[in-house]
Amino acid sequence: MVRKVLEFITPDWTMPDHIQAYTTTRKGGISPSPYDSLNLANHVNDTAENVEKNRKTLATALKLPTSPLWLQQTHSTEVVNSQDWYEGIEADAIYCNQINHVCAIMTADCLPLLLSNESGTEVAAIHAGWRGLADGIIEKTIAQFDDAAEHIYAWLGPAIGPEKFEVGRDVYETFLSHDPMAEVAFQATDDSHFLADIYQLARLRLRQHGISRLSGGHYCTMTDASRFFSYRRDGETGRMVSLIWISNK
């Protein structure tokens, strides 16, 4: 199979040159349908050989200084420091203040959230599905930073859009029980179903904790099938990866 050219999305923020941050699209790998083509997840039914080749292609394309620190994501609020990482660790966010530790989280509708302080000495990557978001994954990750929240930038990567993310009353009530202001992120479709804006829910949490320098949040993984994997759209599918690291450039 001929590899297509990889495509990446980069955060629309102003960061020092030594901060490297990217989100992959589905384009550029070798995996067959329904993982076509740059599937980077080894927990779906794609072959281990395909995933390994795709990861090597990614490393070459981005000239990664080291292998990404892959997480076993479980929709938890567990945050790991990159210095404490080990293969197979279960966590849904990773914080780093070390050079060339490549932080990575995988998504296919959930929100990938990248953080960096203004001086580029601290970064983090968050897998923010609705459960982790409601339970405080953002707050726990921010707490890892030494720098003040007003010096932290946040970029909201490709996730399911507000016109497609239908949830039940349980999700609606979970968020409102934490903050009644979260109601602005929900639109009722009937008595028991709502359209949820995961971007708005994340922005509310970030702003409540002092982070106001926000960008991104204008994608929809479910409707943009040519660029993005979407679990809700396809069921069996691949995963994109969002990466951030402090380089020694």
Element-level helix/strand string:
EEHEEEEEHHEEHEEHEHE
Helix content: 10-25%
Q: Compute the number of strand runs.
A: 13
Could you tell me the mean pLDDT?
96
In the CATH scheme, the class would be: Alpha Beta
The CATH superfamily name is CNF1/YfiH-like putative cysteine hydrolases
The structural domain count equals 1
Low-confidence stretches: none
Shape, principal axes of CA atoms: globular
Walk across the major sheet and give the strand order: 3-4-7-6-8-12
Number of helix segments? Answer: 6
Separation of termini? 35 Å
Architecture, according to CATH?
4-Layer Sandwich
Structural class: alpha+beta
Main pleated sheet: 6 strands, mixed
- CATH topology-level name: CNF1/YfiH-like putative cysteine hydrolases
Share of residues in strands: 15-25%
> What Rg is obtained from the alpha carbons, in whole angstroms?
17 Å
What does this structure look like?
The structure is a single chain. Helix content is 21%, strand content 24%. The mean pLDDT is 96. With 249 residues, it is of the alpha+beta class. It is globular.
List the helices and strands and how they pair.
Elements: E1 8-9, E2 19-24, H1 48-62, E3 79-81, E4 93-96, E5 103-107, E6 111-117, E7 123-128, H2 130-135, H3 137-142, E8 152-156, E9 166-168, H4 169-178, E10 186-188, E11 193-196, H5 198-208, E12 213-216, H6 231-234, E13 240-246
Summarize the structure.
It comes from Methylophaga sulfidovorans. The chain is α+β, with helices and mostly antiparallel strands.
